[in-house]
Amino acid sequence: xxxxxxxxxxxxxxxxxxxxxxxxxxxxxxxxxxxxxxxxxxxxxxxxxxxxxxxxxxxxxxxxxxxxxxxxxxxxxxxxxxxxxxxxxxxxxxxxxxxxxxxxxxxxxxxxxxxxxxxxxxxxxxxxxxxxxxxxxxxxxxxxxxxxxxxxxxxxxxxxxxxxxxxxxxxxxxxxxxxxxxxxxxxxxxxxxxxxxxxxxxxxxxxxxxxxxxxxxxxxxxxxxxxxxxxxxxxxxxxxxxxxxxxxxxxxxxxxxxxxxxxxxxxxxxxxxxxxxxxxxxxxxxxxxxxxxxxxxxxxxxxxxxxxxxxxxxxxxxxxxxxxxxxxxxxxxxxxxxxxxxxxxxxxxxxxxxxxxxxxxxxx
Length: 364
Ligand code: NAD
Ligand code: TYD
Fold this sequence. Notes:
Layout: E1 7-11, H1 16-28, E2 33-38, E3 58-62, H2 68-77, E4 82-85, H3 92-97, H4 100-122, E5 130-136, H5 161-180, E6 184-189, E7 191-193, H6 202-212, E8 216-219, E9 225-230, H7 231-244, E10 250-253, E11 258-260, H8 261-275, E12 286-289, H9 304-310, H10 318-331, H11 333-339, H12 342-352
Parallel strand pairs: 1-2, 1-4, 2-3, 4-5, 5-6, 6-10, 7-9, 8-12
Antiparallel strand pairs: 9-11
The structure holds nicotinamide-adenine-dinucleotide and thymidine-5'-diphosphate.
Pfam family, one: GDP_Man_Dehyd
GO molecular function: dTDP-glucose 4,6-dehydratase activity
Keywords: Lyase, NAD
């Protein structure tokens, strides 16, 4: 082990992946300290961190990554040595309908963290520190069906405002390493799924809509391909990078698990038929709707580098991961009902009202 984080600042730790990471880290490293900084936007929820609120190794700060003075104070006063940066606006559809928040939070917010880290760590001569930036495979753009999967050398060709904002800040993070010597690492991961996934993203939306007997919206022909990774396997990848990753490097994280959207929705429907039978097969709820503008056709990650250099290996198969996930939503109805508040309902209206059904379904 090259590096052992003592006190982590986890931005966006009340969101989907951030909260899974905090649970994972505190379980694996109970002697380290974790401070979560989260603005609790629509996507952040303290319920995602339930069960650890009384853990002496954990503290929560309700605040914005744009508040550089607050970040400086946290890094300094708590002697934080490791920043793991998840906080972001993360939903492609929201970035299409309102890109401003993405540029502000993702680009300016990350730059605010970089400035604070430079001041508190570098300017004070603190050489033992890490700034890990959690990015996405979407920075690489889209692949044709037969193209090789994205390696770390793939050209950046982001297509949505979300992907473009993440691509910009990958470059900004890189520049803070090359110009100032900040100890940065970057991971670009494929689509995650698992517990605490906000039900605006495909898999939890489908599960929740099945449970509520609502239409299952498939954009366009549903033949778009995503490469799905169980969220805890993403957390394991970040762990490997923190402990053994080389400063200044970029690592792709993925599980070699490509699925078309229509196949994944059909699979979830089949699982719902088993776990939550409802008379008719859930596939009857599938509705093809108008496609997402600029919809990327295929993402696929080549994770050879992290596998070879950092001995990374996902532990969940897709079969075990998707069963766990469906079961989690069945067992945690209170959680998903809790996050589906008025603002969520307004979002559904905004996003789907102009997506006209291409085939009609009957609701249960
Ligand atoms: P999420 O939307 O579920 O959570 C984002 C969190 O950031 C929320 O808790 C939110 O309250 C917080 N946040 C937003 N703006 C903030 C601000 N200004 N200050 C402080 N906190 C703020 O996102 P996620 O799906 O957990 O993704 C986490 C990170 O991983 C993102 O950077 C995303 O780009 C990246 N990523 C996501 C996926 C995926 O499949 N979800 C895949 C690869 C990479
Ligand atoms: P999403 O979960 O939003 O992740 P991303 O856009 O970051 O890949 O969407 C995954 C795929 O599912 C994507 O190709 C868009 C598609 N999709 C639908 O077909 N219907 C939906 O209602 C949603 C939310 C997504």
